[in-house]
Design goal:
Layout (H helix, E strand, L loop, with lengths): L2 E9 L2 H20 L2 E6 L4 H7 L7 H6 L3 E6 L8 H15 L4 E7 L14 E7 L3 E10 L7 E7 L2 H16 L4 E6 L7 H13 L6 E6 H10 L6 E4 L1 H14 L7 E5 L7 E5 L16 H14 L2 H16 L11 H12 L1
Parallel strand pairs: 1-2, 1-3, 3-12, 5-10, 8-9, 8-10
Antiparallel strand pairs: 4-5, 4-11, 6-7, 11-12
Helix pairs in contact: 1-9, 1-10, 1-11, 5-6, 7-8, 9-10, 10-11
Bound molecules: 3-isopropylmalic acid and manganese (II) ion.
Amino acid sequence: MKTYTIALVPGDGIGKDVTEAAWQVLQTAAKRGGFALEGTSFPWSCVYYLETGTMMPPDGIETLRKFEAILLGAVGWPAEVPDSVSLHGLLLPIRKTFTQYANIRPHRLLPGVQGPLRSEGFDILCIRENTEGEYSGAGGRVHSGTADEVAIETAIFTRTGVERILRFGFEQARGRRKKLASVTKSNAQKHSMVFWDEVTREVAKDYPDVEVSPYHIDAIAARMVLAPESLDVVVASNLFGDILTDIGAAIQGGLGYAASANINPDRSAPSMFEPVHGSAPDIAHLGIANPIAAIWSGAMMLDHLGEGEAAAEVMSAIESVTARGIGTVAGNDNTETITRAVVAALS
Ligand code: IPM
Ligand code: MN
């Protein structure tokens, strides 16, 4: 039987609840699909940091490299560990070191989920650059603590980085409605964003069948609220994509439905699958977190592993559950109820 090795990193807060939920569903899907998922769990988290002084052991990255995929819950417990420490010690190094340059986030309403907009027929795939840009981490501070203090954070855009994320976006658009929105702010940022626009035009020549529209970040932010059905694939830099995908989560009914995949398209290292909602300290340990975003991320993992049929079955199971109103009203159903319903819909 085909066996896939999966590293489980539940992390902090509700990350633990939703990873466990997703894992139950994935195991059911694997049984039905005639393949096996062999999970190895790692306790790397803020709790681990408080015990050991690091978010993961020094060979953590090399340990993860041996797996075929990583399923992550959430990282962060700001009351005890600053986010700048926890995220730079675990989540961000995984994305960068494993060249998971494409952060994919689907935004559409699941059946039965009430979004805040009148428009319901949208289906957007945001593709966020995930390794460089505004989040490169290049910069520093001088004259710290004085009135002359300076903080510099430099955005880095490389031809390799910009070209590959756009190419990835065009490929995705080809498999969908063949429309690509390229997001910049080239009217104000005259170096990096003018460069991004240029590379978009160059890469577009290889995809004459895809309709390309350049948007400024401010304009597309409004469009995602006012006319989301006009958008298909949206490609954006790290910061812009980060912000747009929170709008995407909001219009799809909230972070509880926002799934994501951090993809290394060359498959030279594992890809990582995670819900977008974070550790949600306010509802941690209560067993009421909505596991749908994590389960959906798990479906994206199955798809990436080549188990497209099982992935589609998981998505249908989620949809049949939300269509019946389970997991669609905050506070009505707990994690276990929703998970059981999805498992039952699968089996
Ligand atoms: C996300 C998150 C992270 C990011 C944070 C926690 C660093 O907001 O995945 O969108 O910005 O990448
Ligand atoms: Mn974010």
